[in-house]
Amino acid sequence: MNESGNKKLSQKDFVLLSAPLMAAYRTIENQRNDRLFYDPFAAKLVTPEAEAIALEDPEEDGRAYLAVRTRFFDDFLLSFAHVAPQVVSLGAGMDTRAFRLNWTEGTKYYEIDYPEVLNYKDAILKDTPTTCHRYSIAIDLTDYCWVQQLLQQGYDKSIPSVWLLEGLLYYLSDSEVHALLNTIMDLTTTGSWIGLDLLNQLCKESTYDEFYHGYFHSGFDNPEELLATYGWKAEVLQPGEEGANFNRYIHPFPPRNHENVERVFLIKAKKII
Fold first, then answer.
1. pLDDT tens for each residue of 189-212
2. What is the pLDDT of residues 10-62, one digit of tens each?
3. Is the pLDDT of residue 4 over 60?
4. Residue-range domains of the chain with CATH
5. N or C: the chain end with fewer CB closer than 10 Å?
6. What is the spatial distance between Cα 213 and Cα 256, in angstroms, rounded to a whole number?
7. Which residues is 260 bridged to in the sheet?
8. β-strands 193-199, 162-165: how paired?
9. How far apart are the first and last CA of the chain?
10. What is d(CA 122, CA 114) in angstroms, rounded to the nearest whole number?
């Protein structure tokens, strides 16, 4: 895949590009007869550059993974939103779940991401109705002022919440991941849920896909152990396994006891302490 005319982007510029790029992949999926989800808004958020990159991408496995990941987290959110009326999406990008999913009455949905991302999305979808109360917090996640803004917007850390960290953590360093999980631990109560995806160390270091090479900065071989440190009991799946397949991902990963394998993990976890 080309990367903005084959020029290496800064870390931030790459992340900013990835937001409309994910919308482009969702647009492609939305056009399939066997689509795994319905997203009528994604096409509105695609930039010409992102569309060109997505259309020239020959990696069918990559498209399948993104479709499976989207459906996995759709199901995750809708499974628990009725018991946790607050949803927080960190690094929300061009995600449209606040608009396209049918939320329980009274649900508060908080999206946090760079101003360049959310201001763009908000301008395009400003007249689009939602079944939730959506709050847009436009700020760099590494600026922990987002915590104060979240609380000021009505988030209540004394009641259960659902958190989504989709396509986010591998762009952070190990220390930044730990700092973020520690912050979320302080903002959540027992009975809360979190959904996220992680790479293992070998995948983080891979040079297989030059488009992404150099932009991934963290990898964890034992997600269960990582999340347990912060009070979460995790269910960890790999794309292709039962619960993360949807009859689409045809090249499953080897079992986790096989060594020297690049891995991606789809995770949902419950706060138990």
1. 999 999 999 999 999 998 667 788
2. 999 999 999 999 999 999 999 999 999 999 999 999 999 999 999 987 667 78
3. no
4. 68-271 (3.40.50.150)
5. C
6. 23
7. none
8. parallel
9. 44
10. 12
- Looking at residue 143, the DSSP 8-state letter turns out to be S
Find the range with the poorest average confidence among 121-125, 142-146, 206-210, 252-256.
Answer: 206-210
- Residue 207's pLDDT is 64
CA distance linking residue 169 with residue 241, whole number of Å:
22
Burial group, residue 109, by CB count within 10 angstroms (0-12, 13-18, 19+): buried
Provide the 8-state DSSP code for 227.
H
What's the one-letter identity of residue 227?
Answer: L
pTM of the model: 0.95
Residue 152: other Cβ atoms inside 10 A: 10
Residue 9 phi/psi, 5-degree rounding, is -90, 160
Phi, psi values for residue 136, rounded to 5°: -105, 120
Burial class (CB in 10 A: 0-12, 13-18, 19+), 174: middle
Contact between 69 and 32 (Cβ < 8 Å)? no
Contact partners, residue 47, CB within 8 Å, separation at least 6: 20
Decide: 148 and 123 in contact? Cβ < 8 Å.
no
Longest dimension (CA), the chain: 50
Of 86, 115, 116, nearest to 98 by C-alpha is 86
